[in-house]
UniProtKB/TrEMBL annotation:
Its EC number is 5.3.1.1. It holds the Pfam family TIM. The keyword Nucleotidyltransferase does not apply. GO terms for biological process: gluconeogenesis; glyceraldehyde-3-phosphate biosynthetic process; glycerol catabolic process; glycolytic process. Homodimer. Belongs to the triosephosphate isomerase family. The lineage of its organism: Eukaryota, Metazoa, Ecdysozoa, Arthropoda, Hexapoda. Keywords: Gluconeogenesis, Glycolysis, Isomerase. One of its GO terms (molecular function) is triose-phosphate isomerase activity. It comes from Dendroctonus ponderosae (Mountain pine beetle). InterPro entries: Aldolase_TIM, TIM_sf, TrioseP_Isoase_bac/euk, Triosephosphate_isomerase, Triosephosphate_isomerase_AS. It catalyses: D-glyceraldehyde 3-phosphate = dihydroxyacetone phosphate. This is Triosephosphate isomerase. GO terms for cellular component: cytosol. It is an enzyme of class 5 (isomerase).
Amino acid sequence: MATTCRANAALLTQSTMGRKFVVGGNWKMNGTKAQINEILGFLKAGPLNADTEVVIGVPAIYLDYVKSNAPANVEVAAQNAYKAEKGAFTGETSPLMLKDIGVNWVILGHSERRQIFGESDELIAEKVAFALSNGLKVIACIGETLEERDAGKSEEVVFRQTQAIANQIKDWSNVVLAYEPVWAIGTGKTATPQQAQEVHQSLRQWISKNISPEVANAVRIQYGGSVTGANAKELGSQADIDGFLVGGASLKPEFVSIVNARQ
Ligand SMILES: O=C(CO)COP(=O)(O)O
């Protein structure tokens, strides 16, 4: 028994070890220059754990400003990008434009894009593929609604959303998955560490079986939904949680302690 436990622990350490912790701050449609300067102030002051990758998701209009003013240890992400280089797509942003101003990351498929703006699994998968093919790194969001969870369909939904992406891409090395149960977003209802770990683990098993064991072992899966300075440490200690995607708390100084949750 003791040997098995030790062996399991060793396996866990081995499997999590290669995956760098990655914490995203999704500002959503928040921020004025004054507020952004405050956020950049606490990010500069940190200190931010050098072993954690930090990416902030900024409203399109402020991307250039934040890119020019963010500290070097903080990466900048757009919150959306379209699946075309350029053209008659009023209001959209192209991955090439993001690259042009030095932005290397994009968040795609957030549940607010899915629910409020009606983005389908297929459109999101196409956007992921197009962003990757233009050299962007992608945080691809997945997650079930409360209705779906209550119907026992959490895994089915998450697998379906991931399958749609798998249908469009081969190389997962520049993809981070963000598991964000919709019922936990902005509600103060965090998934318990066990609930989150359960989905992350079965998603990793699904990836192993349906994509490849190598991708399953390497791909980072963030948890998102009411992550705070108070709950980040316990969530971050779960074997299959490789970081967070943080909404509300990413606008506040407590974001620093979330970044440092794995220290
Ligand atoms: O949607 C989220 C991050 O993308 C989570 O938002 P909250 O952290 O505000 O719940």
